Amino acid sequence: MENKRCFPNRFSDYKGSLVLGQGSDLGAPIVIRTIDSILQQLPAQGGQEGGLYGGLAGVAYMLYHASQCPVFSSHKDTYLRRAVSIIESCVLYYDREQDRETRASFLLGGAGVYAAAAMIYKAAGQDFKKPLDTFRELCDVCQPLGFLECGSDELFVGRSGYLCAALVLKQKLGIEVLKPDQIRSICHAILESGKQYSRKKRKPFPLMYSYYGTEYLGAAHGLSSVLQMLLSYQDYLQPADKDLVWQSVDFLVNQEQNCNWPPELGEVIERENELVHWCHGAPGIAYLFAKAYLLSKKPCYLDTCIRCGELTWQKGLLKKGPGICHGVAGSAYVFLLLYRLTGNSKYIYRAQRFAEFLSSEEFRDGSCTLESIYSLYEGLSGTVCFLVDLLQPKQAEFPLFSVFV
Ligand SMILES: [Zn+2]
Questions:
Q1: Share of the chain above pLDDT 90, in %
Q2: CA atoms within 13 A on the CB side of 63
Q3: Does the keyword Kinase apply (predicted)?
């Protein structure tokens, strides 16, 4: 039966050579053209809301990312200048935001914007102390156990997101922006919240969370990215809590249904209709297992990651657009992740094929129209990040979601 969610993958698989003409001589002009068209279509007014996920801040991050790639050195200053002016307007917007919780949110609010501002200002040679200080101050907001009614621990707006932003800052600025006590107390809140929820709901495993009443498993709002952040900071955990995190990772490994995970705990996957997205499913959960593998060196985690990649090769040519959240670039990032984990060129080949598909007629005619062309997660800004990373696969990383720090 035909799958409604994806195009059939008609590409033959890797046979020992990469796709010709996909090097920087052809790839770079596509990136430059796409950036130009994004910049031409930015709203004349507004767009500062929506954070890194859907707002202008995501465009600023994309410009920063491109500016850091040597292939685009002749555009570096132009891209950075534009990034600075865009992120300044976003910072002003969130400085005026009254709602503390929105200010502390990573992908949908202020925390991510302040983090991006610090990275961009630093790259542009400007003083970045102010956005960094503001970012640090937001730590207090997300420490109370139930600071968000909808669920306080997930990636987009919750505590894991705040930790994720701090991780990106550590990577890009080379400094740990939070004090050890701050990191410990946020991790403690995440753990305590997960233990309490699990006890209250009588779950047969140690840590569980919900977001708007749903027990998500995937990267967007679910267990996998929460665990990924706890693993990223495992040196700050008590030994017993560390064990609990690893038990939970193994619990999630065991929820696999044929190379995929259902969006919600306990659901049974319908094959014709399954979600193979970064936000829900294998292409996002893969990052947790990558992190687990990098820390433990246990081959079983790498094997799980590889299975995520196999399913994504079959079902990752998504009809929901070119983006990284639930689009083709998000699928292709799994191959770049697997390339970095294994060094196997097969994965570069697969990423190249997905990049090629993005400019095909079949994709243009058959995929959903974009609501926001410039969004980092749903629109073309994330696609640009992917195309840039395809030119530098040894440094490639899903935007703002590193497992290599
Ligand atoms: Zn999504």
A1: 94
A2: 30
A3: no
